[in-house]
Design a protein that fits this description.
By secondary structure, the chain is α+β, with helices and mostly antiparallel strands. It is about 35% helix and about 30% strand.
């Protein structure tokens, strides 16, 4: 690929370029670095490429081609209109014949245009704009997702985000199971709504984190910047609260109640920076968190009976699982054995 030929390209030109489409569709991974370098060096090209990306995804390009039969049928229909009897044209005046030739030429251009439009718009199934996309961060992994509106989502391990291919109807609506950190692109005409079981969070453009693992007793919404509305959809007692910077709403699934408090982002949102943080955490919650973080299965032997009042606090930045288990078990509260992705605590 030569960079020079892209200098004068506009969004529509990129969309029609085969190399560009291959890069976007992921069929040419070897070109990733080339495109990234070009876009970093050329601001104008980067702007046009962003427009082209949105157009590309909206059109939902695929590999279908126009059938030859359809082309032949269209040509026959057009030819029958232009030339009913070619012998008649041979007897016309010279000027009439010239006019006739211009008509044929114009018709050919029109035919080519029709074929091009068919190739561009009608040679593929109409994209389902309501199609839902599900992205999963497996246990032991974290995932960053860029939505079509420019919103960035960091998905914690063991979490699932479901969202539509296109945001329609004047709102941006998603559902989350697990934990995620959102940097929402502002759009005053399209509120951003996240469903997490009995709790709904709505914003226009802000930065916040949501923790909503099914196995935990609470749903937490922590605001880093902007303003957020949190609603409890509980049948027993519907509530609504507004949060600002450094405020967190906690929904108790058992009591069906929302409570507002301040929070420490270095603790509540440490995971997004790759830091594992425990704050007075009980034994079995520590085990669940380690399973998610490292993508392992931990089996606790019946002989291990931790004190109900036992709580653990600690901060770990890129530490190994065996290192953390050694810290947690101090002083000799249990022993453990690690076998690849399976751990026995005994």
């Amino acid at each position: 690929m030569e960079r020079q030929r892209y200098h004068q390209f506009k969004a529509k030109d990129f969309v029609l370029d085969q190399d560009f489409r291959s890069w976007l569709s992921g069929t040419a991974p070897d070109n990733d670095r080339i495109w990234e370098r070009w876009l970093a060096e050329d601001e104008e090209m980067a702007r046009e490429v962003e427009k082209a990306k949105m157009l590309f995804h909206a059109l939902n390009f695929n590999k279908y081609r126009i059938e030859d039969e359809a082309v032949q049928d269209d040509w026959k229909r057009l030819k029958s209109v232009i030339i009913k009897d070619p012998s008649e044209h041979l007897q016309t005046k010279f000027s009439d014949r010239i006019n006739w030739l211009w008509s044929v030429a114009a018709a050919c251009v029109l035919l080519v245009s029709i074929f091009a439009v068919k190739q561009f718009w009608f040679s593929k199934p109409v994209p389902d704009q309501n199609e839902l996309i599900t992205r999963i961060a497996p246990k032991g992994e974290r995932l960053t997702i860029k939505l079509i509106d420019g919103t960035s989502v960091r998905l914690n391990s063991g979490s699932t985000l479901t969202f539509p291919k296109m945001f329609l109807g004047g709102k941006r609506e998603l559902s989350l199971v697990g934990e995620a950190y959102f940097e929402v692109a502002p759009d005053k005409n399209a509120p951003f709504i996240i469903h997490t079981g009995e709790v709904t969070t709505q914003v226009l453009g802000t930065t916040f984190g949501i923790e909503a693992y099914p196995e935990t007793g609470d749903v937490r919404v922590a605001v880093v910047a902007g303003k957020v509305k949190v609603k409890s959809e509980s049948v027993r007692d519907k509530q609504e609260v507004f949060l600002i910077k450094n405020e967190m709403a906690t929904f108790d699934k058992t009591a069906k109640r929302l409570a507002v408090s301040e929070f420490d982002s270095n603790k509540q949102l440490a995971w997004k920076d790759g830091v594992l943080y425990f704050d007075k955490t009980d034994f079995y919650s520590v085990i669940k968190k380690l399973e998610n973080w490292y993508g392992v299965k931990i089996q606790v032997s019946e002989s291990v009976k931790p004190d109900r009042e036992w709580r653990f606090s600690g901060k770990f930045d890129n530490q190994s699982l065996d290192y953390i288990l050694n810290v947690v078990r101090y002083p000799n509260q249990f022993s453990f054995e690690i076998n690849k992705d399976f751990v026995i605590i005994k």
